[in-house]
């Protein structure tokens, strides 16, 4: 039986739980790189983590809920929005790594901002990007963390689109 037919027969609940596990695995790997390898995330990386977390939580709720067709489509749309938001951030960071700006746009690191500024002032700085967002500190198969993140968000968006249009959503 072809893979697509096998996936089509799986319940939405199982597919959402698989997405939850995948997103949590990616977040766990990011934490491993941070705490075991000493790679400090820039604010753009932190925002991508928030997008992965949003996708994971929506997928968990969808997996626990076991929705019918309409509910599954709502979860898929929300997951797609989270994936597109994360992909936009990852794409911007990828572009900054390919063509670093002449004057760094990032500014001070996340820890410095949170220690030095009230949260209301630090949040807008985080959304603009701070730290060295254009730096490539780690690669695997020639791709940076931002590149892998972009591909993961793109795959998640394709998953969400597939869940939106699939016939048997239960």
TrEMBL record:
TM spans (from-to): 12-35, 47-67, 74-91, 145-165
Alphabetized UniProt keyword annotations: Cell inner membrane, Cell membrane, Chaperone, Disulfide bond, Electron transport, Membrane, Oxidoreductase, Redox-active center, Transmembrane, Transmembrane helix, Transport
Recorded GO CC terms: plasma membrane
Sequence ranges on the Periplasmic membrane side: 33-50
One term of GO molecular function: electron transfer activity
Subcellular location: Cell inner membrane; Cell membrane
Residue ranges, Cytoplasmic side: 1-15, 68-73, 167-170
Tagged with keyword Transmembrane: yes
Bilayer topology annotation: Multi-pass membrane protein
Signal sequence extent: none
BP GO annotations: protein folding
InterPro entries, per database record: DiS_bond_form_DsbB/BdbC (IPR003752), Disulphide_bond_form_DsbB (IPR022920), DsbB (IPR050183), DsbB-like_sf (IPR023380)
Covalent S-S links between cysteines: 42-45
KW Transmembrane (keyword) present: yes
Pfam families: DsbB (PF02600)
Function, in words: Required for disulfide bond formation in some periplasmic proteins. Acts by oxidizing the DsbA protein.
Homology family: Belongs to the DsbB family.
This protein's name: Disulfide bond formation protein B
Lineage: Bacteria, Pseudomonadati, Pseudomonadota, Betaproteobacteria, Rhodocyclales
Gene designation per UniProt: dsbB
């Amino acid at each position: 039986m072809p893979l697509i037919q096998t996936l089509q027969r799986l319940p939405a609940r199982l597919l959402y739980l698989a997405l939850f596990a995948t997103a949590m695995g990616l977040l766990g790997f990011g934490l491993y790189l941070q705490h075991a390898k000493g790679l400090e995330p820039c604010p753009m990386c932190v925002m991508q983590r928030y997008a992965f977390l949003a996708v994971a939580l929506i997928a968990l709720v969808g997996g626990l809920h076991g929705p019918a067709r309409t509910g599954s489509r709502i979860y898929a749309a929300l997951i797609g929005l989270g994936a597109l938001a994360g992909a936009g951030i990852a794409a911007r960071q990828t572009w900054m790594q390919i063509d670093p700006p002449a004057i760094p746009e990032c500014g001070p690191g996340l820890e410095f901002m949170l220690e030095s500024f009230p949260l209301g002032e630090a949040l807008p700085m985080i959304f603009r990007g701070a730290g060295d967002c254009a730096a490539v500190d780690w690669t695997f198969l020639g791709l940076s963390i931002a590149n892998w993140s972009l591909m993961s968000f793109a795959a998640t968006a394709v998953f969400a689109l597939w869940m939106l249009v699939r016939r048997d959503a239960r």
